[in-house]
Amino acid sequence: MLEKGGTGGRTGLTDDRRPSGIGLPSSRWMWAAAVLAGTAACVLLPLLWDHTGADLKVYRLGGDTILSEPSALYSARLPVISLPFTYPAFAALVFVPFALLPWPLAYGVSIACSIVALWVIVRYSLRDQRLRTAAVLVAVAGCLLVEPVRETLSYGQINLFLCALVMYDVLDGKHPGRGSWVGVAAGIKLTPLVFLALLLVTKQWRALRYAAGAFCGTLLIGFVAAPSASWEYWTRLVFNAGRIGPPAFAGNQSWNGLLVRLGAPSGGTVWMVLVPATVITGLWLSRRLYNQGQPLASLSVCATIGLLCAPISWNHHWVWMIPLGVALTKVVPVDRPLARVAVAVVWFGYLIFAPYRWVPRADGREFSWTVGEQLLGNAYVIAALAALVVLAVTSTSRRDRQQTVYSGAGSL
């Protein structure tokens, strides 16, 4: 079980271990649906890809450079891609196997690993449902079409892998060294550092110690492997968000991207006010949901505030919308399955069509958006805020119901 945290000494897995009892079609029909959904996804995905592993090529550059010339890790460039390596030196070591593989095999392995990671994400998101394997396959096939997922696969990104690693480490309370994988994930890509704050506010002290220790371990390994490059990264480059890309680009779905598109400076005063307000409010909500026995919602909220507050959160970073969407469906009472289905269809349909892609993008066209285009162009930010509001309101009503039950029991 998870460590006790917050008031009442509740464990984080309380409600998510209760089977919902939702009926499913026969096994034969579910496997037929799985085959059909998988085939449809395989046909559609190549039609929607246009990046051909660009980020994976940069990862391989990092892996190759740390083997051949570690000091040049952050100055090396590919002939046709000007993007630099932007992760800590430890991440470059993780990418070494991809650098050693031929390109077609490396890209194929990347896609295969991401699909396995997506299975883990879906499985942990639906772990309280008594679902057959075929039903999970249907869900995975559907999630392949979600825009952040298909962009992750197309770019050869690692977002799905990191999401699965964190979900396993936080939601599975049985494995030894729980918290270590959160630290490793943060050592690869800094954004998972936000989950150390979740472990802190939910008083999961042992997991927090493991996470902090593992992260420090990745720093040490990085300095041993590439001392000068690591010093350059941690003293200068880590503060330069501009190396990652233009914050005004529509693909940057964060507070900073929204504000820059409205004409504010990147990292300006308004952003500096919004970030701490979002962090404080979000961690308060994460703690409340955790104490109410909703670990998936708690984790998803924490991930969302990290995405909102990062200077740049590219569209493919938003794979966390999958567990967040499942958490939203669980807000609907279990005795209203059609309402749950409706919430899922709206949420995941929204992610498949990704409204921010419907407006003029790139080359500074974001600065001339109309009000309607601003609403579409900041689609993930708006959806995330709506989800946080729903979870906050329902958590308040749930707390009121619990207090009513406790007070009634005390009067007996």
**Uncertain regions: pLDDT < 50 for 5+ in a row?**
1-24, 404-412
Radius of gyration: 22 Å
SS element count, helices: 19
Shape: globular
List the topology elements.
Elements: H1 27-48, H2 54-68, H3 89-94, H4 96-100, H5 103-125, H6 133-143, H7 147-155, H8 159-171, H9 180-188, H10 194-201, H11 205-225, H12 227-235, H13 255-261, H14 269-291, H15 295-309, H16 321-329, H17 337-353, H18 371-377, H19 379-410
Q: What can you tell me about this protein's structure?
A:
The protein is mainly α. The protein has a domain at 242-412. 63% of the residues lie in helices and 0% in strands. The chain contains 19 helices and no strands. It has helices at 27-48, 54-68, 89-94, 96-100, 103-125, 133-143, 147-155, 159-171, 180-188, 194-201, 205-225, 227-235, 255-261, 269-291, 295-309, 321-329, 337-353, 371-377, 379-410. α11 packs across α12 (227-235). It starts with 26 loop residues before the first helix and ends with a helix. Residues 1-24 and 404-412 have low confidence and may be disordered.
Brief description of this entry?
By secondary structure, the chain is mainly α. It is 63% helix and 0% strand.
Features:
0% strand; mainly alpha; membrane; Glycosyltransferase 87 family protein; disordered N terminus; transferase; disordered C terminus; globular; transmembrane; 412 residues
